[in-house]
């Protein structure tokens, strides 16, 4: 008995040591997140630096310190996990994007956004895939098959427009902000769907039917993912409208909104759909219906809670990417041929820029031919900003590269290690170098006055004017669109399709959707609330 007990003690001590190391790592990581927030706030008005670059630089510096302290063995506080990224960090970012989007601007420009985000991503993926197939065969980087080349195209077609969105003002340049923002979300979804479709096919035995099956599978994922997000959002609106959670507990309705949003993402993953598209459209539907069904306290709480979760997740990702850039395991494989690694990274950067230009300027030209109003056309300076916004690569590219070229974050193949290190190099270079140039470039191309920023907060008594202007008073205003007469012909319909569709949708929404699912105009009647007092005073 004594022998058995004495053998257990060392195991408990080992477990205790392991747990303590994890606690130390988490403490350091949380401290880094706090430092990023503080430094980012202090540099908010800096001409060159933004929070993304700050977090990335802090991550790299921390990685250097850990690498030196560990004697060159490791630069990590945490081991990279695809599950951590796709299941825990990405959902709040994408949901908040949908929840805070100005829906009218998004859907009025939906055709343009879809062309840039979906068709443009396919063009960019094709150009990058063809380019790496031609160039990489001339370099000694190991054995890559056609599936790897197509996957590389999908990996580097995924953009990260965070730096540009932090500089653009959606009140000063609503069209440009809507296009850059919308394209970024659709691009991420398209890249992930494309990547998953490439992995699901046996590309070593290609026949004509595979192409048709691939296209059919792509559109199936797009449509079903969107519908799942819409249905989940409508279900949350209906439940809260019928059960009046806020009458008894604001906590319950806030918790239900959060859980239903996360449920939409996990259901998409469960059914092998695109969780990004699902949770994005769930966010749009919840902001249109569910958000208006809850009490005033819940509106303020949910708005800031979703924004805070998204903000922390973004900082977390950039800090980790910075630390992962110094992963000694992967750099060891390329240390003998640094020229090859530099050449691969340079080729990828060149193809990214070429692939981006190959669809932004031609598609903008075609869009301008259709648009009648000069305000709706995309001028050349705006086209340059859209092109520039899509040059940066971020966490989605890192996560997809790890999925394709590693197993549980580790690799023992030289070719795979070169692709991982090249991906990290491209992400670092594009985020830091292109990111540093973003503010001065946009201020040079779009010299807008700053006085319009004061219009954001018009009435502090309403939850819609709290700090973040995304859900501002004019978001879905039913008075700011000019009255449009019913088109007398197909030609007239095509002349102003977005406005006409928006008008018909508004009538359908008021007549059928809002009476069932709630939305603007529906205020929960809570005993003892300001709503009840104002109601009694009106009697």
Automatic annotation (TrEMBL):
The keyword Protein biosynthesis does not apply. GO terms for cellular component: plasma membrane. It is a multi-pass membrane protein. GO terms for biological process: potassium ion transmembrane transport; regulation of intracellular pH; regulation of stomatal closure; sodium ion import across plasma membrane. The keyword Transmembrane applies. It is found in: Membrane. The chain crosses the membrane at residues 20-40, 52-71, 77-99, 106-129, 218-240, 274-292, 304-323, 343-363, 384-405, 417-437. Coiled coil: none annotated. Keywords: Antiport, Ion transport, Membrane, Potassium, Potassium transport, Sodium, Sodium transport, Transmembrane, Transmembrane helix, Transport. It holds the Pfam family Na_H_Exchanger. It catalyses: Na(+)(in) + H(+)(out) = Na(+)(out) + H(+)(in); K(+)(in) + H(+)(out) = K(+)(out) + H(+)(in). Residues 31-442 form the Cation/H+ exchanger transmembrane domain. It comes from the Eukaryota. Its main location: membrane. One of its GO terms (molecular function) is potassium:proton antiporter activity. Belongs to the monovalent cation:proton antiporter 1 (CPA1) transporter (TC 2.A.36) family. This is Sodium/hydrogen exchanger.
